[in-house]
Specification:
alpha/beta; globular; binds 1-deoxynojirimycin
Length: about 500
């Protein structure tokens, strides 16, 4: 287990929208390099960069055409390697985004696989035996290839599924997981990982990590075996490299070999009750001031998974990601401060999505590169009040996505000069986390006060106690022995046998 994860705080960068340095309207590697000091000063010491490889960009780069080539719109392979080196000089690690479940339909492997004559890549993707034989239960495309057969999709139409085999093959065209061609797919993906690790990348965020083996069982036996095999490679050759899965099932993912797994937003799940509980018109999010939520719905879902993660790796909380509505969609700045205070003082490794530190808004926009509703969370970073919010020198019409043009759109520059800003709160919270081993990824966690219908939540981290009251009323909770407040948002205090939490307050006590 890489020790650096204990004190890691990740910053997710959607490279399209972070910083454009060559005036073409889209972000680039050089832009990330120029903002490394900003990221370090914020308190983040690791990056996750969304796919930055050659691609037709029908799914924003999650449709890879060449795993070993940087997308020219961001720069060259050399630029990406320079980014690794510059980040390392500042104590920042860099995770790339590995998409192992599918490629672009324009990947040369797929072009070869579509050919009528059998070749090395014929089984790299999943094909049925005949052009009129559907793929039974799997999404598929027929009629587009000279090869007679239909192929299975992993996500959008542009993303044919790579073939890692079937756990219990039921049809002649379903290969077993130990078929040499399925092993070859796994080895090809390991080769891609080695390629970037050898050049200084520090690991991978793994897209749809559970999707590899088809007809897998509930325990994901087939898929887990592949990740265990990958982990063996990392442990022996790249022990400092880290992998985080897009899975949401730490019971399986961490056992399989991932070091971290995400608690992803899902309709009605525990994570969604924190900041995005607005499904049925009314907003009952725990961090909404008048949401009347309580923390128990989060804990019911979180605790079993947290328990399963202990000693195996980390179950991680995110402010947001490129697939989710920004939390500023429904939470105001004060509500966000409390939500982030919670996320940054919980166990596991926290992930901050670019722009959330200033409370960037969700914009209603037409779809771009397969983004659909997600597009509104992918707009250019707002650095200052200059042209295009300091994102790019390009003409407005040629920007990748429009910048938030509201008069009160938040910017880094404005918040840097306001000591009461969300940005300052994020910085102070991350500084506190780095300074207190008790707040870091593997320190003990125990809920102390979590009641149905109660607005406040109190939890212990190591020797510290953390208390949060997101509601508009004052809440008094029984004291837990600690007396001195070492960090606060809003007004709260300790009094003999109780903690008094005034409206919208957060305390760390020792
Ligand atoms: C999950 C990624 O986060 C998302 O953006 C992408 O569209 C799908 N996987 C398909 O790769």
């Amino acid at each position: 287990m890489p020790q650096w994860l204990k004190d890691a705080v990740f910053y997710e960068i959607y490279p399209q929208s972070f910083k454009d340095t060559n005036g073409d309207g889209i972000g680039d590697f050089q832009g990330i390099i120029e903002k490394l000091d900003y990221i370090r000063d914020l308190g983040c010491n690791a990056l996750w960069i969304n796919p930055c490889f050659d691609s037709p960009f029908k799914d924003a780069g999650y449709d890879v055409r060449d795993y070993k080539k940087a997308a020219s719109r961001y720069g060259t392979n050399e630029d990406l390697c320079r980014l690794f080196a510059e980040a390392h000089k500042k104590g920042i690690r860099v995770l790339l985004d590995l998409v192992p479940g599918h490629t672009s339909e324009e990947h040369p492997w797929f072009t070869m696989s579509q050919k009528a004559e059998t070749n090395e890549y014929s089984n790299r993707y999943i094909w049925t035996s005949h052009c009129f034989e559907g793929a039974k239960g799997f999404p598929y495309i027929g009629g587009e290839s000279e090869r007679s057969g239909v192929y299975v999709l992993n996500f959008f139409k542009c993303q044919p599924a790579l073939n890692y085999g079937f756990l219990n093959p039921k049809e002649p065209w379903q290969l077993p997981v130990d078929h040499p061609d399925c092993i070859a797919t796994r080895e090809a993906m390991k080769d891609v990982m080695r390629y970037w690790l050898d050049q200084g990348c520090d690991g991978f965020r793994v897209d749809m990590a559970a999707s590899l083996v088809k007809n897998d069982d509930e325990e994901k036996t087939g898929t887990c075996a592949i990740w265990s095999n990958v982990r063996e490679m990392l442990d022996s050759d790249y022990p400092e490299a880290a992998m985080v899965s897009e899975w949401g099932n730490p019971q399986l993912a961490l056992k399989a070999g991932f070091h971290m797994d995400f608690f992803l937003n899902g309709r009605g799940n525990g994570y969604s009750t924190l900041m995005r509980d607005y499904e049925n018109q009314e907003d009952h999010s725990f961090f909404k001031k008048d949401g009347h939520g309580d923390i128990t719905r989060f804990l019911e879902d979180y605790l079993p998974r947290y328990e399963a993660s202990r000693d195996n790796g980390y179950f991680c909380l995110l402010t947001c990601n490129h697939d989710t509505l920004r939390p500023r969609y429904n939470l105001d700045e004060t509500e966000l401060k409390l939500a982030f205070a919670f996320i940054f003082t919980m166990p596991g490794v926290p992930y901050l999505y670019y722009g959330d530190e200033i409370g960037m808004r969700y914009l209603e926009l037409p779809t771009k590169e397969g983004g659909y509703f997600r597009t509104g969370s992918r707009t250019p970073m707002q650095w200052n009040h200059e042209k295009n919010a300091g994102f790019s020198e390009a003409e407005k019409d040629s920007l990748y996505l429009p910048v938030d043009e509201a008069d009160d759109a938040p910017t880094v520059a404005a918040q840097e000069s306001d000591p009461g800003s969300l940005l300052h709160t994020v910085k102070s919270l991350l500084a506190l986390r780095h300074a207190s081993a008790d707040l870091q990824a593997d320190a003990a966690f125990e809920p102390v006060y979590a009641e149905k219908g109660a607005a406040a939540f109190v939890y212990r981290r190591g020797a510290l106690t953390v208390a949060v009251n997101p509601s508009g009323g004052t809440v008094t909770v029984p004291s837990v022995g600690q007396k001195s407040v070492i960090y606060s948002i809003g007004n709260g205090r300790w009094e003999e046998d109780r903690i008094i939490l005034e409206p919208q307050s957060f305390l760390v006590l020792e």
